[in-house]
């Protein structure tokens, strides 16, 4: 191999023109990436670019995708260690390449050791400004929004990072269709009131106001994951909430028993199979309270509850919650949108939406959001 | 990171159940991968698998794609060095995963240092047999067959390995549609008589009978690239020749002058723009001679000259060549097939066919081959 | 022309094996077709078939489509008069042809003279039984369900029968996907509480229990249009209500003033553009009352309120109405489904859904209904 | 029915602004339509339009399609008699409607009584000029070009006009993509040298220079079908010859024996299944002679032999013929293009290409012609 003598090292913190995607605690030396879809974006005028990552985990390793001029060209598992990854080499040094390095896997609440940090870049050119897109969108969701199953054969059943994708994901596709910057807050199996297993702690709203509060452990604390998120720093035009699928699933799961306290929780069905009114009502109250919290932190956003890629059993309750919220607050900038259901044809791995289901959802959702942004609705 | 204590090392040569794709010189310690689409395939029953690669280059680095159960899950640049790449981890140890590790870039005739070797596997399970597919297909071609431009934005113009793909490629897609094992012999810019630049040395036929004779240098010699290929070891049912595009391009390029001898070569046009008869005739003779060579080495194969993804100016000459060959030999198992032209919609990077153009070509070509294999033609 | 001497005349009433589609008053000599999608279906074993129609109108002429073995082969305007239309000729007399003659235009509430009657068939073969399909579906709707705009160039603006289609219509497509017989009750511009123009008489519920009560005039009275419909004769498994689009439109239209009484009606907006609560509530009550009426007449059906092909502003009110109905009756077999929005790409004529929008809606809706019929929901 | 008092009668011959499609003998009182795709085109500013047709046949009745603003809105069988067909009514009298009335069925060489004449129009408005399109294309072919099987269920086997379409046809689609006026010369079962059944009289070239010489009988004589065609009146930019499919089929059919003379004809295979050289050569000579005839009559046209929708066994012979023609004449403006093969998915009725196969062919062919018209080839 011939060395490129022109390469220079840049601590990420000293690069003026880098756009950071995803919530962070502010530290850039190094930059910790928490959420799926988070990462860095550069307009790099030069021939060769490397990025230095630091990675660890007990169970769930991170993956990244690299996009050059908006096209995914690389996707790879990041094994443990601190090392250099080459982003591109041998390119025309006079042309500007838009580069995004994207975390392809969700924040891992089940693995306190899981960490992905970006330390340094090695480059032989100049970093040019990365302008903001005209819109900002925040997506909040569960496994669907984490892109679980968006890659891989239909037969795959392992719960591993390999099957997650931030790129073949309705979030990225919707943002691209809207020409928007975007962020994702998501966790597989979690809900508004409880997780799929009736665990009341697996709820997104409790952690929404922290940088990445659903993580645990000293490592993540040191990285600032539990700090209060600075909402003023990034105000979305649209917030998409894609939650409810696991709250619905809880009605089909056994009760959850807290190993610490012995307390149990269970969303129950009536004998005819319908959902128990008081349990639904608990969901409605939780969803309504979440809307209050979302509005408080995102004063200018249109909030869309978007739901339906894996069935719509909770839709009446979601409409009730939004109705309750709107009547009690007078807030008109909230609406509900049904996403198209996954079909056999569009299913991915782990009986989750595949890339085609995500495309389908993005097409419908972005059409709806465009009308809202054009003030048609 | 928690170490997996069950991992064991296996030199590739000691693994009974590994299928090698692509021509090799027989050595397995290590295995050198030359051609695009070459690689190893395993049916791996275990939870974690690593592969040790050794990589070097002066200019053009290799890339690999990893397919798990036939779905591409990873694609990455391989930078210089000898190191381990994790294929999968954390999977159900009792399930068999079909894994293919595929060289995504063509043999690099322009970089004598370019090498990709596979040494060792690290695995915690058992390798199961990988049965042969019912058919074998060999593809012979140029940049189209090398998948140049099958990945990347339309605006990309750099000639770099990043834009090559063996996976989003009509060769892989056609083989999948036919349920066939396949091999590829290809080189960007090369032709039957000359390359795009009128260089008469850039012709595939001269090197067809070596393992990978279009490479150069001592490294490749040591790896066996220039040895005679053992055709008996792998007899295709179908040979697809996708050459002629660069022979056509030569009519539009300046003459080529041999830096050593000063000899020049040029395929010429008449004043009205048509191709000079004697220059076309030289192509016809070269193509006919190549068919003789193909038949000698592939006695049972149906040979298909498939051409047209970047226009069809040479098609009359190709038909002439095949007609001449058939009449002079009596061989009936040769035919010509026009591939669908790339359109603005289906173009990839470097004004070459994109993934959609490859899909389109694979659909038409595999339909045609199916009819042949069913003896309908 | 050579006469076919084997042709025999059959009054429709004397044919045992004819399936009548659409609500009728029972008379078969002749048979009056009221609703879009109504018609006759035959399994005709013979070579030549004619049908005698009687047609009149003041403004809006009827159109028919003819389907042979489920494929539309003919579509034509029926001008005034009593005359013969040839369905097929010259066919193999020993093969059974499934033939459907379908009214392609809605019942015309605005033209008391509009009538389409079928008197007699001329045939040279045998009519074979036409078995019932495994399911029955009733669709209730407005212009969308009438297929207004499903044919014709995007620029068309005339309100004429030419642009209506019962065939390129989500109703027919959904029924085909479900393998169901189906009926349609629909009227352009009408709603649940009022029409698009705030006219409170343009509501479907008031006329739902008559054969075709929204028509007027002595002709239609004589044909039995105002008789009570015999619900027992045809009990659907699913009732799809696609109403609300015009109720939503009324909020944007000027007030309607009754020419007879001077009474006015208007669905009003608040200053911030939102819908007035009491006016929405009137819609909710009307929708809830309609559900009560639907259930009374269709005891075994799953009722689906399907809405959204031209936006979803009324969706919250629809959910409220269904919630109110379910809570007040305990009836669980009612649900709401959002149909995919028309896009610029899928628009037809008269800024209404085109054939592609209908296909899109049918795909989503039939997927949802299949799950219901399979008792998954 | 209310009479439209403003309707006035116009003999077709007295209308200045009517565009006639298809070859005719010049007579306009009435206008006889011979070929599929022939018809009249109007830019009609008025509210109501009728056309008076005169129809007869012994076996094969004509069908027409009506297109309003380029969209097919009506398709109907025309039974024997002289009568009025309403084209549109009730439309905005101030808007111009582009109307085409198109013969949907080929000239019927097997039915001397078959005739379709247009006498008179009834209209309440003004006929505006119909400008010529920028290009003219002539299509010459067999059943594929006649649109046999482009409509109807896959199971249909009757040879009847119902399954023919001039609209869902690659000819119409290619012309639309090129923004070209077009004409069609075609006959099911016919070829260059012989028909599918080895009948040497079923060849298009012998009749190419007459208005519609492949018809027979006194009726057609009186209508001018056998007159010499005035090529100067309509000079195409492109001639597409889609012949060869039946010449290929002849190799699989029994010999044809002339009932009059007892002479026989047969295209023969060798024992190994290949085509006999001298029989192929007869085809090559016939095809070459046809090219000479085409060039004589169409001096400025690029001639494209387009073949392949039902397999490509004759392609080598077609290339030979074109090569022979080009070498013997020096004419460079001739080329060969392979059309995409019909698949199971795209098949229509009578195992002929369906509408999807025609769309596919039109897409490829129009792309190729665009390049030629842009002088790229």
TrEMBL record, chains A, B, C, D:
Keywords: Hydrolase, Membrane, Transmembrane, Transmembrane helix. The chain crosses the membrane at residues 303-326. Residues 251-273 are annotated as: Disordered. Residues 139-316 form the SGNH hydrolase-type esterase domain. InterPro entries: CtCE2-like_dom, PCW_deacetylase/CE, SGNH_hydro, SGNH_hydro_sf. It comes from the Bacteria. One of its GO terms (molecular function) is hydrolase activity. The keyword Cell inner membrane does not apply. The keyword Oxidoreductase does not apply. CDD domains: Endoglucanase_E_like. Residues 263-273 have a biased composition (Basic and acidic residues). This is SGNH/GDSL hydrolase family protein. It comes from Paenibacillus haidiansis.
């Amino acid at each position: 191999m011939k060395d490129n003598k022109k390469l220079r090292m840049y601590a990420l913190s000293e690069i003026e023109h880098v756009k950071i995607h995803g919530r962070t605690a502010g530290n850039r030396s190094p930059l910790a990436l928490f959420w799926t879809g988070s990462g860095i974006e550069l307009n790099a005028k030069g021939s060769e670019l490397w990025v230095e990552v630091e990675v660890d985990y007990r169970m769930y390793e991170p993956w990244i995708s690299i996009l050059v001029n908006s096209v995914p060209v690389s996707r790879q598992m990041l094994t443990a260690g601190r090392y250099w990854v080459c982003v591109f080499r041998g390119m025309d040094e006079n042309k500007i390449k838009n580069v995004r390095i994207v975390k392809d896997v969700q924040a891992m609440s089940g693995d306190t050791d899981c960490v992905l940090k970006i330390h340094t870049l090695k480059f032989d050119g100049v970093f040019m400004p990365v302008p903001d897109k005209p819109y900002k969108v925040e997506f909040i969701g569960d496994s669907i929004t984490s892109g679980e199953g968006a890659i891989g054969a239909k037969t795959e059943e392992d719960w591993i990072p390999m099957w997650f994708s931030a790129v073949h994901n309705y979030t990225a596709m919707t943002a691209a269709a809207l020409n928007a910057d975007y962020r994702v807050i998501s966790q597989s199996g979690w809900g508004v009131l409880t997780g799929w297993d009736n665990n009341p702690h697996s709820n997104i709203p409790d952690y929404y106001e922290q940088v990445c509060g659903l993580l645990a452990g000293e490592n993540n604390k040191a990285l600032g994951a539990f700090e209060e998120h600075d909402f003023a720093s990034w105000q979305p035009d649209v917030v998409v909430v894609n939650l409810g699928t696991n709250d619905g699933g809880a009605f089909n799961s056994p009760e959850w028993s807290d190993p610490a306290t012995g307390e149990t929780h269970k969303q129950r069905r009536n004998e005819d199979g319908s959902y128990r009114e008081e349990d639904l009502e608990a969901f409605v109250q939780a969803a309504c309270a979440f809307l209050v919290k979302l509005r408080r932190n995102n004063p200018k956003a249109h909030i869309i509850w978007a739901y339906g890629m894996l069935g719509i059993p909770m839709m009446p309750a979601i409409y009730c919650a939004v109705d309750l919220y709107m009547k009690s607050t007078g807030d008109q900038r909230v609406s509900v949108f049904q996403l198209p259901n996954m079909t056999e044809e569009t299913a991915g791995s782990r009986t989750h939406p595949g890339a085609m289901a995500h495309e389908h959802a993005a097409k419908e959702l972005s059409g709806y959001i465009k009308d809202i942004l054009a003030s048609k609705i």
